[in-house]
Amino acid sequence: MLIFIARRLGLMVLTAFVLTFVVFYLTNLPPNLEKLARSEGSVRMSDEAVAQWIIDNGHGGSVLGRYGQWLGVVPGWQNVDEKGVPRGRCFAAGTDPAAAPRYCGVLQGNWGYSTFFRGPVLQNLGEKLAATGWLMLWVMIVMVPTSLVIGVVSGMREGSRTDRVLSTFSIATTATPEYVSGVILVALLASPVTGLSPLLADWGWIDGKVLFQGAASPDKITFWSFTLPVLTIALYGIGYIARMTRASMTEVMTAQYIRTARLKGVSFGQVVMKHALRNALIAPFTVIMLQFPWLLNGVVIVETLFNYKGFGWTLVQAAGNNDINLLLGCSVVAVFVVLVTQLISDIGYVFLNPRIRLS
Fold first, then answer.
1. Which phi-psi region, left, alpha or beta, contains residue 353 (left: φ > 0; alpha: ψ -120 to 50)?
2. At what angle do helices 282-305 and 178-185 cross, to 10 degrees?
């Protein structure tokens, strides 16, 4: 197991380097740098002034060298601008360059400066990621148990009326993207004209006022104001996981050892709980673990729709405002989440299925 984990970690590190370099290269293409120079300087800047701004702010030189500086494995850039003011990656304006560290990249905790938030990327990204973490937590609490129950019940009664009803529900939710289900839920439950929001507000079930004034942040949300974004994300995943669980449960219930247990007089409930359920959860476990990367990137639509200032909302703002450092920070988080969940998925798959050998 230790050798397996060590190999996986080595592969994760190599994959992280490759993916982050690709994102760094794409975000640091000359058109993006020129757009950044004009947005931070002046839209009326001449081409010569734009080129000088790019050099003064450390965006000159080879891409590989700048990637090494961003990582923190190459000494940070230092120069003197046309006004004679020293500038550098590792020290703020007006401070002594001699007292600054040589290396100040991602590995040292310096993720750069966000031109959108006007502050350190790591600090702002951490706050937004925590907000999305709360959203993902409640989505998983709602999505996983519901989908497993639907899939198991449907697989146990293959071909029955219950199976057909649950399968239809699962297919419908999976076929409906978040931007459609979100709008439908808003129209039905939170619209002051055609929806049920006045009645639900009287019952205390939903607070549309908090939800749509942009105050849906972790320190201001209530349980019921969180209902719509959680349902919007969970509905799509419920159908997918339920269908996978049903297919796995159906296959297990027709296995020879299940028939043998039934012929020996074992009750149907004991067959399901002691023999079928564990084997049926092998495939859904992998799917559930893959939901974490999907949730992290799939919340872009939901957070934008409900004005929830989390990771997805931050990613949209970074892309729309050409915030290169913030985009790079978002890519690091996304790569880390994907790789870690893949590792957990592989390890959990081995424990659930003893027939798998580590090699």
1. beta
2. 60
- Round the average pLDDT of the chain to a whole number and report it: 80
Please report, as a single letter, which amino acid is at residue 61.
Answer: G
Of 336, 296, 326, 322, the residue nearest 70 (C-alpha): 326
pLDDT value for 24: 93
Report yes or no: 97 and 86 within 8 Å, Cβ to Cβ: yes
Q: Catalogue all structural domains in the chain, each as residue range(s) with its CATH number.
A: 2-110 (no CATH), 122-352 (1.10.3720.10)
Contacts of 348 (CB under 8 A, 6+ apart): 285, 289
By three-state DSSP, how is residue 285 classified?
helix
**Chain center to CA of 7:** 25
Q: Which pTM was predicted?
A: 0.78
Secondary structure class of 297 (helix, strand, coil)? helix
Percent of the chain residues past pLDDT 70, beyond the cut: 85
Backbone angles phi, psi at 132, to 5 degrees: -70, -30
